[in-house]
Amino acid sequence: MADARRAPLKDQTDVSGARVLIVEARFYDDIQDALLEGAVAELKAAGATHDVLTVPGALEIPAAVAIAIDSAEAAGKPYDAAIALGCVVRGETIHFEIVSMESARALMDLSVARKFPLGNGIITVNTDEQAWARAKPGDLNKGGDAARAALAMLRIKRRLAKA
Questions:
Q1: Residue 11 falls inside a structural domain
Q2: How would you classify the pairing of strands 19-25 and 49-55?
Q3: Which residues are (2S)-2-hydroxy-3-oxobutyl phosphate-binding?
Q4: Binding site feature residues for (2S)-2-hydroxy-3-oxobutyl phosphate
Q5: Could you tell me which residues are beta bridge partners of residue 49?
Q6: Domain of 96?
Q7: Residue of 6, 77, 95, 105 marked active site
Q8: Mean pLDDT in runs of 10 for the chain (163 residues)?
Q9: Is 95 annotated as catalytic?
């Protein structure tokens, strides 16, 4: 497995106080715990707050993000960014392809259409071993990567809004 490569982000626009939504699919509780741990650590380091919304599986994540964004906006407490966390392990049918591709496409569509910072931390793997290597904060830390991506996009949005 390749080592994780993370170039330091040069844009250090302040994101402290940002309100971030984490939507997690708890299909694999133990793997999800590791993904969530990595994401939360990154948000805390950036001074962001977060809410966690749990859904049954990865296919439900995009709709839950959209519903939560609208509800928070209507309540006058909008989210600044969102993070999608989940795990899809390949099985013997095409269900893996459907879940992984459709959840990714829906998240991308949502992010682009709404111009909304979103980090996709739905890991797609062939084995449990691959899932653990990607989920653990001490290894590839894909939960942390998703949080960093969401915060990076939020920095871009905030910086360009000031321009």
A1: no
A2: parallel
A3: 92-93, 134
A4: 92-93, 134
A5: 19
A6: 19-162
A7: 95
A8: 62 90 95 97 97 97 98 98 97 93 98 98 97 94 97 95 79
A9: yes
CATH number at residue 29: 3.40.50.960
- Structure-token match 């829906």, residue found: 106
Q: How many domains does the chain have?
A: 1
Assigned domain for 8 exists: no
What pLDDT is stored for residue 11 in this prediction?
Answer: 75
Annotated binding residues, written as ranges, equal: 27, 58-60, 87-89, 92-93, 120, 134
Residue 13 lies in a domain: no
Instruction: Write down the pLDDT at residue 8.
Output: 67
User: Cα–Cα distance between 134 and 139 in angstroms, integer?
Assistant: 6
This prediction's pTM: 0.94
Q: How many helices (H) and strands (E) does the chain have?
A: 5, 4
Sequence-separated (6 or more) residues with CB below 8 Å from residue 155? 9, 11, 12, 13, 15
User: Residue 12 has what pLDDT?
Assistant: 79
Binding residues for 5-amino-6-(D-ribitylamino)uracil: 27, 58-60, 87-89, 120
In a domain, residue 134? The reply is: yes
Strands (E), 6-79: 19-25, 49-55
User: What is the reported pLDDT for 13?
Assistant: 81
